[in-house]
Design a protein that fits this description.
Elements lengths: L2 E5 L7 H12 L6 E5 L1 H10 L4 H10 L22 H5 L13 E8 L5 E4 L5 H7 L9 E3 L2 E5 L17 E5 L15 H19 L6 E3 L15 H18 L4
Parallel strand pairs: 1-2, 1-7, 2-3, 7-8
Antiparallel strand pairs: 3-4, 3-6, 5-6
Helix pairs in contact: 1-3, 1-7
Length: about 250
């Protein structure tokens, strides 16, 4: 049986994917195909390469995003995305989709023409970096003359590559929409930001119907996109939520 695993974006909340993977393995569920975007692309690529959940968790806990040597100069972004290449190369030494142990799809958004790109062959690390390049914070990533940013910009729950390739699909969504009060919308930009978040959440949740099982740790609303100080708590939420859902759906 082929089992697909969809991993959404969510920044630091992507650590919940790692906890979910640990729980899936404890229930003898081992996905054969993975589709991920943003932080889900990072976890998906590491998992597809055979990196254990404990090593992935260590990666998330030790990677320092805002080191001064990562700052971008004369580029559109605060952090130079290219500076993360060596961090990933330690775990992905062959830098090629064909050397992975599982079939992997990574999505990124072409910042010039506005199209979605699905990477599944050739060089691996640059597409991962591109997919996780949060717009406005990280610089766009150049691949074969094209420039890409965070895949979640256009598709934060990329189930599409798995629909015709897998017998069962499990989705993990780690970017829940936080409940707010009208008083929280104090400025025009906060309304625009809220509208964007509503759009992303709505489009993603509609695709839950394409999955046989969805893991959606709603308590992740307590944590922010760059909340790197709570990786353990985020990981635990992914683990406990997934374990509870699997216990309730043993027929999966």
């Amino acid at each position: 049986m082929t089992i697909g695993l969809v991993l959404s974006g969510g920044g630091a909340r992507g650590a919940a994917h790692i906890g979910a993977i640990k729980a899936l393995e404890e229930f003898n569920i081992f996905p054969t195909h993975i589709s991920g975007t943003s932080s889900g692309a990072i976890v998906g690529a590491l998992y597809a390469a055979g990196v254990s959940w404990s090593e992935m968790l260590s990666f998330f806990k030790t990677i320092s995003i805002f080191q001064t040597n990562r700052y971008a100069y004369n580029k559109p972004g605060f952090i130079n995305s290219d500076n993360f290449y060596d961090d990933l190369k330690k775990y992905l030494p062959k830098d090629n989709f064909q050397d992975l142990k599982k079939t992997l799809f990574i999505t990124a958004a072409n910042v010039i023409d506005g199209t979605l790109k699905i990477f599944s062959e050739g060089q691996l690390i640059k597409p991962i970096i591109a997919s996780a390049s949060f717009p406005g914070v990280f610089t766009p990533t150049e691949i074969n003359g094209e420039y890409y940013i965070d895949g979640g910009t256009l598709n934060n729950f990329p189930v599409e590559p798995l629909k015709n390739n897998c017998d069962k699909i499990i989705g993990i969504y780690v970017n829940p929409l936080k409940k707010i009060n009208i008083k929280d919308l104090k400025h025009s930009y906060s309304v625009v930001q809220r509208a964007y978040k509503i759009k992303v959440a709505s489009e993603s949740m509609l695709k839950f119907l394409d999955c046989d099982l969805v893991i959606y740790p709603e308590e992740l609303v307590k944590y922010g996109t760059f909340d790197m100080n709570n990786i353990d708590a985020i990981f635990d939420l992914g683990y406990t939520t997934t374990k509870k859902i699997l216990q309730e759906n043993k027929n999966i």
